[in-house]
Amino acid sequence: MSLPSKENFSEWYHEVIQTAEIMDVRYPVKGLYVWFPFGFKIRQLVYSKLREVMDREHDEVYFPALIPETELGKEGEHIKGFEDEVYWITHGGSTPLDVKLALRPTSETAIYPMFKLWVRNHADLPLKVYQIVNTFRYETKHTRPLIRLREITSFKEAHTVHKNFEEAEEHVKKAIEFYKEFYDFLAIPYMVIRRPEWDKFPGAAYTIAFDTVMPDGRTLQIGTVHHLADNFAKTFEIKYEAPNGEHYYAHQTCYGISERCIAALISIHGDDQGLVLPFEVAPIQIVVIPILYKGKEEAVMDACKKIVDKLKSFRVILDEGEERPGAKYYKWELKGVPVRFEIGPRDAEKGVAVASFRDEKKKFEVSIDEINDDLIWQWAQIMRERLFASATNRILEKIKIVNSPDELKDWVRNGVGIFHLCNNEDCGLSLEESGGSLLGWFEEMPEWINLDNEGECIVCGSKGKVAALARTY
RNA sequence: GGGGCCGUAGGGUAGCCUGGUGAUCCUCUCGGCUUUGGGAGCCGGUGACCCGAGUUCAAAUCUCGGCGGCCCCA
Where in chain A is the domain with CATH 3.30.930.10? Predict the structure, then answer.
């Protein structure tokens, strides 16, 4: 059993998802996939970090999955953006429903009618909640596990309500900081980009997105933050009474992250051997492999058990299986186990273990007496920094600063083009003839991209800022 | 939105054009012997022609429809 090379990303992704037991892709409905237990453990570890970040400022809630047609259709722009991909429930048993029910494509129209009831006066604000739910979209393009789904199983969506535009805008900045913390934790490099007008969330004043770059040079949107202004508040009559006795429409934000964060985690860090996981989100963090020879089993097993006992605060396993050691190495590398110890008769005699990290091929000896929690956490930290650095280097190979529309067109099949662009809509739209999508303008420049924010628009020459264009998932 | 290709054991494949053999090979899995510092070896076993209709003496193979997957172009 061996994976296709990651050079052939599409094939590699499909295989690793299945053989590393993230998702079972064999469910007989297009765009729906099954979480294997191992994949679900990764999901749980990743989402518990996301929860930890959200819980600092939000309350977790749950709203129904079904939305009456009358509410879903209220906000004109919003429904236009989703109407072609809504699943409808039309019958209860064999009785046609008076009002059709939509399976939520996103939850604004489920939540905001209730916000109208929850928000009465200025003391009720700001209101900040989030939920982690499934959502449904009838995707017509080809679907991909964790990336393009008909059922998004793990949509973390936050919704906030504020007094005015400025306060909501302040919160947008905070939301961006939350998401940065989350992706830094996963060692996933990202670009924070303001979407062009024609690509913002339907009903939003503006949209800021997190994009990362996949190994084939296409970008993956892994988070969005929307300023909704008072667009939805006016539709759903979310008003509050101010201290002066006047009633004002509230301003809102919403922002979301889906299981695409796990697609990014797998794709950005993985290699030809399989998954490479940051220590904190690895379902198995440490594996101990005994190397047994006839007559010497006892000393080796004793040493192994000693290590396992010392490290019991981690998710550690002792692989006592019948396979030969080499087969075990490949097996656990596929699963992305960050730290491995091997102990054979020679090592047991010397009181050492042979350690190695998933992201490096080097092996080194460590005295069993020196192994403790602090040492492991040190390793985990170093590994995260190394993962981030090597991910960034690989991504930089897929990013190029281009100086003309022609150069952009030549490059876009390879990766992301970066350039200065003015805010004239025609300039931006003309660039999409290159075959990519205009991601928008950098909200902030990543440290790893070196380019002045101000410059001349590569289309018309007038004053512009740094923008990016790429083929997207 | 438009076009093309494909569906054979748990996974990957040969056979299909030109209809007829016990449906090929690898892997996985199960039992046995043996082995163990980077995917060991031998023996034996389980397991498949996507669904439906049609053509035919006979369909994995030809035709149509459905479902599912992949790729390219806009």
Answer: 9-269
